[in-house]
């Protein structure tokens, strides 16, 4: 019976070992584990030495950054802002907020830090001016609401915040935008304000951490994994015996790796935001990187958006540049799927997709970005993508069998240290 | 100091107890818990008695339903389908699949079952016909791929399946559609085929279950909760001391209830699919309802889509009607936000939104649906909504303070048995 089953498999199954490209190049797991140990060790060294700050670069007076503040500090800072305003009113000078500008012209990419930061331009937002009276009123109201959150020690979403005063805010973009202003005014991160975004990410693998006081063991989360908590301030006590963090763009690849328990064969932590990175997942990834000092390898689609997603994790997004120091994870390696992999791994022509005009334009725009330029390997790959006008999803590897990703492609990539 | 803090709160805080509508109507929790116990007991009785089948209704010959099959049964069924075809070819009759029709004309709402089912019309899909040769080839290929999944005992996504033969399938809608056909041909659920959808839902509260062999305690999942596993067949051993299941439409309300640990005050299990219900969450909800025999109370937006989402959980969606018996959860109660709540709870005018033309049309269409008609309470509410042309999100309750939902609205609803 066992024989029959085996024979039948080899007749029907197009995923035969012999036919799987490069499977014969794979060395023993112990060899690959040795490579991962070296990577992990070097990451621990570089993490502890290379974390430069704006101060080190002499930029702290010309650039603005926010930090995590405790709830009581946020409360005290709000109170002092309001007291200052009260004094200004009493001395006959009226009332105005001094608000850091978040416009594109006030943004700067700092290569030494490898992220986008906010410069120091500010704008006055006086109450006694027809063009700013609404915005200064909204600012005051948001400060008051955040003050309440501090006192109650609860978290709310941006949507909740909007609904507390629809008459004033009118639409949510207005309260959202002023919320970012308030972060800049107080000099604290948005998560310090206890205003959170909806959670989207999941994590599975060799990680233990506490979520709101409960200890979570991510090796015991089955196939579904653990939902990443929306409030990073209640996450702590991270422990891990992983050698690296595998950052995955999409759900489908995550599910494959979780079911195959890839993290047992190669000790790692697998994390995904299921597409566009949300704030909670970005904070969680950074916290893992910082506390565990592990290298981060990224598995994204081979298209301009894959690289863009990688860059948001790595360097930040422009609309939250004031918070880039807390949201970004330095030194993420681009493991795959890279444009050069398409030929190298013989991805069949019909599994590649032609890039649209928009794709090509996005790719060319990315080539102009500083954070791409500073990495020659990335420039080379992106140039190849724009030239061949071909893209491919991670799932394209399924053309060699459903488990090609976890059983051949990823192990081989690791064995060959094939990251950039 | 404590005094000062207290005083300061009552000065600044617009959420003062006295101002909160209906807070004074709330009775002690013990009173509400008694009501929940009665609800839970009656649900346990009705769950075990009222589960009628097509057979009971004399419809089993004119309607078609699929069941959960074990992997080895799926494998054996595929083999017998293929053998039958081989015999047909050898006897000179060529080869054709007999495929159940999934068109709208072949759908039926059965009031006794309170769900949509598929009637018994089938269509021949011959290979030797120019109009069906592609589809019959795709069907054969999907059968072969599913056969492989059975042998390997792994799960893949629909996207993976598509990528195994892009040349043949051309685009994913084609492989997806034939996958549903294959479920009908084999008479098994899509989850029996080991083809899964991306996970989206989360669960938190008084539930313990096993996910792929790991025991998960959902009271110890912090604020993030547990991601609902994509493959229900590896979920088991459900235990709970909850009195009801709270089904929440959106993430923001879920986060509020999870942070406030609402399930500790009123023992319950809180679950959300974060918007449109996905297959994994629907299967998970049904499994909880069936195994734990708990009542399900739904908290959705007061708009036509809220009711539509409720109906998908309850009665199924048309494009998967063949699987409605396994995907639907009977007897879900509409707790809120109901159109009559807007006035009853004095939701401020500016937190209500005018319905668009499209909203009103969707509302009117729903009024024609059998599953709405059979519930007079629902008809009344929906008629009110269409008449007032007003809608409101769950978050509109935040206008009375961030915790109004968990501290006043929901407890009062439960106390008044205010569900339909």
From TrEMBL, chains A, B:
Record-annotated Topoisomerase 6 subunit A/Spo11 TOPRIM domain positions: 244-414
GO CC annotation, single: nuclear chromosome
Catalytic activity, EC: 5.6.2.2
Cofactor(s) recorded in Swiss-Prot or TrEMBL: Mg(2+)
InterPro entries, per database record: Spo11/TopoVI_A, Spo11/TopoVI_A_N, Spo11/TopoVI_A_sf, Topo_VI_alpha, TopoVI_A, TOPRIM_Topo6A/Spo11, WH-like_DNA-bd_sf
Spo11/DNA topoisomerase VI subunit A N-terminal domain: residues covered: 134-195
Location relative to the cell: Nucleus
Active site: 163 (nucleophile), 163 (o-(5'-phospho-dna)-tyrosine intermediate)
Binding site for Mg(2+): 249, 301
GO molecular function, one term: magnesium ion binding
Pfam assignment, any one: TOP6A-Spo11_Toprim
Keyword Nucleotide-binding: yes
Catalysed reactions, semicolon-separated: ATP-dependent breakage, passage and rejoining of double-stranded DNA
Domain Type II DNA topoisomerase VI subunit A all-beta: 199-235
Stated role: Component of the DNA topoisomerase VI involved in chromatin organization and progression of endoreduplication cycles. Relaxes both positive and negative superturns and exhibits a strong decatenase activity.
Quaternary structure, from the entry: Homodimer. Heterotetramer of two TOP6A and two TOP6B subunits.
Protein name: DNA topoisomerase 6 subunit A
Species classification: Eukaryota, Viridiplantae, Streptophyta, Embryophyta, Tracheophyta
């Amino acid at each position: 019976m066992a024989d029959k089953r085996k024979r039948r498999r080899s007749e029907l199954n197009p995923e035969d070992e012999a036919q799987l490209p490069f499977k014969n190049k794979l060395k023993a797991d112990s060899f690959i584990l040795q490579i991962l140990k070296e990577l992990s060790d070097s990451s621990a060294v570089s993490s502890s030495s290379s974390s430069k700050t704006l101060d080190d670069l002499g930029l702290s007076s010309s650039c603005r950054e926010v930090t995590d503040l405790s709830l009581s500090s946020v409360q005290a800072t709000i109170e002092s802002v309001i007291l200052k305003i009260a004094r200004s009113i009493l001395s006959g000078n009226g009332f105005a907020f001094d608000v850091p500008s978040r416009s594109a012209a006030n943004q700067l990419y700092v290569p030494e830090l490898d992220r986008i930061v906010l410069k120091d331009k500010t704008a006055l937002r006086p109450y006694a001016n027809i063009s700013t009276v609404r915005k200064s009123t909204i600012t005051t109201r948001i400060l008051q609401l955040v003050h309440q959150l501090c006192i109650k020690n609860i978290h709310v979403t941006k949507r909740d915040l909007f609904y507390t005063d629809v008459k004033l805010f009118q639409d949510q973009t207005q309260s959202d935008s002023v919320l970012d202003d308030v972060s800049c005014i107080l000099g604290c991160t948005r998560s310090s304000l206890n205003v959170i975004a909806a959670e989207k990410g999941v994590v599975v693998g060799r990680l233990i951490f506490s979520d709101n006081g409960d200890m979570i063991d991510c090796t015991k989360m089955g196939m579904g994994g653990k939902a990443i908590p929306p409030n990073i301030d209640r996450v702590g006590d991270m422990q891990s015996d992983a050698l690296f963090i595998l950052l995955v763009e999409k759900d489908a690849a995550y599910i494959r790796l979780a079911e195959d328990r890839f993290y047992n064969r190669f000790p790692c932590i697998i994390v995904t935001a299921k597409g566009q990175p949300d704030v909670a997942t970005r904070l969680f990834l950074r916290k893992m990187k910082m506390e565990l000092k592990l290298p981060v390898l990224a598995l994204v689609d081979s298209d301009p958006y894959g690289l863009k997603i990688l860059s948001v994790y790595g360097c930040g997004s422009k609309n939250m540049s004031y918070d880039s120091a807390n949201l970004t994870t330095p030194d993420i390696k681009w493991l795959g799927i890279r444009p050069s992999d398409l030929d190298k791994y013989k991805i069949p022509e019909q599994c590649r997709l032609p890039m649209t005009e928009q794709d090509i334009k996005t790719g060319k725009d990315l080539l102009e970005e500083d954070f791409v330029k500073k990495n020659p390997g990335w420039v080379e790959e992106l140039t190849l993508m724009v030239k061949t006008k071909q893209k491919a999803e991670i799932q394209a590897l399924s053309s060699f069998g459903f488990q090609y990703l976890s059983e051949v492609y990823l192990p081989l990539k690791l064995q060959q240290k094939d990251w950039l």
